[in-house]
Write a structure and sequence with these properties.
Blueprint: H1 3-20, H2 23-30, E1 34-36, E2 43-47, H3 50-56, H4 60-71, E3 77-81, H5 122-133, E4 143-147, H6 153-167, E5 173-177, H7 178-191, H8 195-202, E6 206-210, H9 219-234, E7 238-243, H10 255-261, E8 265-269, H11 274-287, H12 294-303, H13 308-325, H14 330-336, H15 351-361, H16 366-370, H17 376-393, H18 397-403, H19 409-424, H20 428-440
Parallel strand pairs: 2-3, 4-7, 4-8, 5-6, 6-7
Antiparallel strand pairs: 1-2
Helix pairs in contact: 1-4, 5-6, 11-12, 11-13, 13-14, 15-17, 15-20, 17-19, 18-19
Bound molecules: adenosine-5'-diphosphate (ADP) and magnesium ion.
Length: 443
């Protein structure tokens, strides 16, 4: 088929699929694909990215069936990723970092461009950009980045690597995970020759060592690294390390190495705050070309607060689940994440948590809610917060009054009565709001 025939064929298939799939699934998974003309009768579709390809494979039987209905021929359906020639694309997930395919161990998906900057990583990001831009003669040597798992240390390190590779291809940049570094060293010992190991590391134009904590307790390795470090450091070569803890907490590290590690810049990465988590989710879905309703973003961001790797995993799970369920809503997200959202990581219910969620829901500050202002836009949310403190926490009227800026217990009673009666008289807006708020509180 030529390209016009292929396009027409595909259009007909899409029309048939409209009857078989929900609008959302069709829009999310089918419409972003383009048919690619082939000579062998195979129906070849190109998906915008690997993530998309992975998910849409579930629909192949459906597509194949539709194609057969239209043309009367049972043909193979294959999906490739746009821009990649071969259909047999191995799964490349952004989370897997050891991409020896690119030859240098750097994951091309980890760039500064797709790193979301927020309060927890702002400083680390700035330091990394600065080193990547100015490879020689900066004061941040060595750079020591530490923080918990899944917070973006490897991403930042690879972003430096990719940037430098692109801008300064002649810089002999060496990236290694320290586990591998240790293994190479052990092999070197058993072979009895240090030459190639030393050549590789002591001649680096820039050395990136990921997860340096693996050299803890390995004294011979530390000895070797000490000399590598000094050689590079003295010739002004940048050394960048990531670690799951600060140098002071590396227990079995030789003192002189600890001193070296601490002699440059030490930056930490903190878990992302709510806004950053939201921004990362938005960013990821944009990258993956999927439309996600705001309240679903909110649900995931509010409940998965541990680290970014889990956040990404949660989004994938929700998208996958929504594809099976045929809709993408907070209910689907709750169902999809029910094993992931541990009761402990759920918002712990307290007057603060309730007020915080209510304030966010109505786009106002906690201070507004607790303030003495009586205008409706503030008093309504305040009454809802009071009502929830009463019904969900079972606090007494006087306790609630004290919490909300020292109000009289009769004010609280009135608020609770008012909300209760509005709910029973089916005030639709109020019911919708309270349901939304309760959902966010996992009530
Ligand atoms: P670490 O090395 O700290 O354990 P990673 O760098 O492997 O964490 O990050 C885990 C996942 O989260 C990766 O897929 C990475 O791309 C993503 N990630 C981390 N931080 C950010 C960020 N600020 N913006 C976008 N993605 C991020
Ligand atoms: Mg890492």
């Amino acid at each position: 088929m030529d390209s016009a025939q292929t396009a027409l064929f595909w259009n007909n298939i899409v029309s048939l699929l409209e009857n078989e799939m929900t609008d959302l699934s069709l829009k999310t998974w089918i419409l972003p694909m383009e048919p690619v003309p082939t000579k062998d009768g195979v129906l070849l579709l190109s998906a915008p990215n690997d993530f998309h390809r992975g998910f849409v494979e579930m629909y192949i039987p459906l597509i194949r069936n539709a194609a057969q209905q239209i043309s009367g021929v049972d043909r193979d359906v294959r999906i490739i990723v746009s821009g990649q020639e071969t259909p047999a694309v191995p799964e490349v997930r952004p989370g897997t970092s050891d991409l020896s395919a690119s030859g240098n161990g750097l994951n091309p998906n980890y760039s500064f461009a797709n790193f979301v900057v927020g309060s927890g990583n702002r400083f680390a990001h700035a330091a990394c950009v600065s080193i990547a831009e100015k490879t020689a003669g900066n004061n941040f040597n060595p750079l020591f980045i530490y923080g918990g798992s899944g917070l973006g240390k490897t991403h930042l390190m690879h972003a430096i690597g990719n940037h430098v590779r692109q801008r300064h291809p002649s810089c002999n940049l060496v990236y290694v995970q320290s586990e591998r570094f240790v293994n190479e060293f052990i092999n070197t010992i058993s072979e009895g020759s240090f030459d190639s190991f030393r050549n590789k590391y002591r001649n680096a134009g820039m050395l990136l060592i990921d997860d340096i904590q693996f050299i803890e307790g390995k004294l011979q390795m530390q000895e070797e690294f000490f000399h590598t470090f000094n050689t590079l450091y003295e010739s002004g070569k940048n050394i960048i390390m990531t670690c799951d803890k600060p140098p002071t907490a590396l227990s079995t590290l030789e003192e002189r190495l600890r001193t070296r590690f601490s002699s440059g810049l030490i930056v930490d990465i903190q878990p992302p705050d709510y806004e950053t988590r939201l921004a990362i989710l938005r960013r990821r879905s944009q990258d993956e070309n999927v439309q996600v309703p705001e309240d679903v973003f909110d649900y995931i961001a509010a409940n998965i607060a541990t680290n970014i790797r889990e956040l990404e995993g949660a989004l994938k799970t929700v998208l996958y689940y929504s594809m099976l369920a045929g809709e993408l809503s907070v209910e689907t997200a709750q169902e999809a994440l029910k094993d992931l959202v541990q009761p402990a990581s759920r918002v712990k219910l307290s007057p603060d948590a309730i007020t915080d969620v209510v304030a966010r829901y109505y786009n106002m500050s906690i201070e507004d809610i607790k303030s003495s202002r009586r205008s409706k836009d503030v008093s309504n949310p305040r009454q809802i917060a009071m009502y929830l403190c009463r019904t969900a926490l079972n606090l007494s009227f006087p306790e609630i009054g004290i919490y909300f800026g020292g109000r009289d217990h009769s004010t609280v009673m009135h608020a609770c009565d008012k909300i209760t009666s509005e709910i029973s008289s089916q005030n639709a807006t109020l019911i919708k709001d309270i349901t939304g708020i309760k959902k966010r509180l996992s009530l």
